[in-house]
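Honest question from a wet-lab person: if I give you the sequences of every part of a complex, can you actually get the arrangement of the whole thing, not just the pieces? Trying it with mine:
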Amino acid sequence: MSQTINTGRRHFTLAGAAAGAASVLPFWARAQGAAPKGEPIRIGALTSMTGTGGVYGPGMLQAMRLAVDEVNAAGGAGGRPLQLFNEDDQTRPDAAVLAARKLVDISKVDLIAGVWSSSVALAILPITNGAGIMMLNTCGSPDLKTEDKQDLVWQYQAANDVFGKAFAQIARQRGFKNPAVMAFNNSTFVGQANYFRKSWEEGGGKVSAYVIYEPNQTTYRTELARVLATKPDVIALSSYTPDATIILKEWYQNGQPCKFIMPGWSANENLIKALGADATEGIIAVSNVAATNHPTFKHFDAAFRKLTGRESDVFAAECYDMIISYALAVESAGPNADLKSINTRMRSVTNTPGTKVTSFAQGRDLLRKSEKIDYDGASSTLEFGPAGDAVPDFGVFEIQGGKLVAKEVIPGTI
Amino acid sequence: MDWLSIVNAGINGTVLGLLLALPALAVTLVFGIARFPNVATGDYMTLGAYAAVAAQTFGGLSLVASGVFASLTVGVVSLFFYFWVFRALAQRPLVSRLIASIGVAFAVRSTITFFAGHYQYNIEAPLVRAWNFNGVRILPTDVYIAVTAIVALVLVFMLMRFTPMGRRMRAVADNPELASASGINARRVMVLLWSIVGIFCGLGGFLLGVKAVVIPELGFELLLTIFAAVILGGIGTPIGAVVGILVFGISQEIGSLYVGPAYKIVMAFLVLLCVLLLRPQGIFGRIQAAR
Amino acid sequence: MEGYIVTISITILIYMLLAGGLSLQYGFTGLINFGHVGFFAIGSYTSALLAMQGVPILICMMAATALAALFAFPLGMIALRLRGDYLAIVTLGFSESVRMVLQKEEWLTRGVHGIPGIPRLFGNGPAADLWILATLVIVNIIVFAGIKGMIKSPFGRVIGAIRDNEVAVRALGKDPARFKTRSLAIGAALAGLAGAFQSHYLTFISPEQFVPLITFYVWMAIIMGGVSRLSGVVVGTVMLVGFLEGSRFLREIFPGVSEVQLSSVRFWIIGMALICTMLYRPDGLFGERKTVKK
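Yes, you can. This is the full assembly:
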């Protein structure tokens, strides 16, 4: 009996010691690029590799890697190399807190970027604020604007209120009279749906149906039937790709004519691949990506495809922009600047007025000549409002013949 | 709520119920014969769906062939875990097997995501418009799914009722000590049991993937409904499992017309609790001696 | 470094309260409760909602503990007449129903948006975390001493007997249901207390934090440590969190594997740990302690 206890205890102690030893291994193994010298900039990438966000997380990390490599190849930001440290938040706030703590206390990062879920962002906010570091995210929750008391939080994704309004404006501009709303039951989409309804009703008229559906269901026929029973001419569908696929499959097989307005991250090539050209014909996709022939986007998308073999999505584009814009802020503040002054430079390198730049190297060269720049990113023109939120213009696309065709651009409004 | 919506919701619930009857049967058989709730059922289904995707992508197999491949693959995996894990735990308390099945579920799902990632996949199946009978809509795909499920169920019922192997399974389910005393080879029964479990979960997962999308959480999310339905119908009774899941499927779909989709699972549980209070053995179950 | 260690320790101590409660319910009374996270949620939300109304934190936490225990009573009355495997599923349904209600009733809980800005225990200063840690240590010591005392008391002897042979207990004229319900309630109260700590530590809660996965983690902790030994509960919880966090550092050992794949590896190891523990070390990693003193 005592034999077994001792073996168990010994194994346990060994395992614990190994974990402890591994945790203090130096991180220089991650140094990127030989050219830049100087104190490395440590970037904490807190991405959702698993959970609901797991569909987008890996791409977001790859996009950040891409940007880091580009900046380092150009000599670093202010001569300092960028280093990326990654942790998975599992799209869960409680796991995120531990991950964020590890990044802040052990990896000693200068900022946390790539946060996808609003609950995660809200949960780690006390940690990042407490450490005085920036948090760059792709979240849509307006709560972040009010909770961001130190102006350290930068939202690269349009907040739900802006998105919802844009949906309503597009619907109105295209002459729809009887919209219905279907939304995935989480904070982002319920928010979007609410603002759509508010915005629509402010302009006169009512939405014919308003249905919030639960995640992870096999079928949404009943929910869809409820909506279709009110005979809408368009459905504003706030969704992710998996549930959108199911709903559209069932709508198409149902056969009732109706149009759809969807966010760009779910109405993309993956959706077309899943459903085919017939079922997706005429879907209106709304995205921060203002124009697919914008130089920054084209460059990023091509590089992303080369690296991953997959199509990029708007979240990945936003993550790319996070790194580039931060690098430009560092460049502007100088290599010895502290975190606070880098933070104050964020707007100056991304907002108008200024010479428009579309890459890090271009921006850096102009900054060295003390010119004011305005970085227009792959995800949007990155005009940050007073609460650190990007109010992008929206690109409106239609799926025609199995391809996304750019239509008009509408300005975002708060 | 007009009768048309109710009819359509009812049809949707029926198809869903028939599809889920396959894993429900797997659950109830394991409950009755191996005597524990098998949490790995959901992830066996997920494995079936992914196996079908792999068959189509890498093997270029047709839809039907991928379905067969999916069922067989999961059957093999199920047998593997029986031989390694569940056989050794047969004499232990129920919780051991329950916890081990949670471990199997995690192991299967993590293996899938290791190779396939968390993206969504699709089983290539033709998208066809529904037949419309004055507002009552029936999808051809649903009909194929329903027919496949019914055929599989009928086959298993015939197996259980009319073949010697089936009789032996029922004997072990009823009274394992008496069965082994009568000379029934428990090992053969178990191999048959776990093969059926694997095949049915794989087939169910395949059909689910055809109807919806293939994501890692596919099967796990359905576990609660399946377990509740099995208890409702009576643990260990195959006909109970099928009736239970149909009742659940239909009442959930129709009920959500009134209380909204969020409370579907809550309603299901209230129903379950009521039934258990009034008739603890479930609809078709027989009262078992106190353990 | 210290901040990270403090955070991990706080997480461990919160899980320890959960595990202590579950151990009382399953290890000592034999109740297969798979809805533990439901009581965690009730405690968490009660404390948060009261605190947002300005109620002093201490009162909120006491209310959270009490309310969680209260919910155990109707659940107990209904569920404890059922067999073990039924109980597992019904309790799972209970915790999922709690989560659905929290999600749906926006007027009360803000639904899916969650509750941000919950008042923090000991405020936001740099030393606050250490105070929270100290409080949790003291609370855990008190709780575990209490459980130990309960086990040795007449009440403890009855529930141990119920776990081993319920029919015999009934034959002796005692009503098992009352004892089982009390055990369920005490375990639930501990979960509620843990939930209150969670709220005032994280300062943000949302329904998606209270999923069955948490219940499974707690089960893992008590299984690995040995279900009916209190020292096992402590060890099991440390091992659980230690593993979940330590697997982060696996990346340094396997540089060739991508991050996504590493999370799969982590889950695979959890699955294997559960299977192997059940197969080879069913009484916990340290073996069964000698049976309760006669």
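Two things worth pointing out. Chain C has a mean pLDDT of 86. DSSP finds 13 helices and two strands in chain C.
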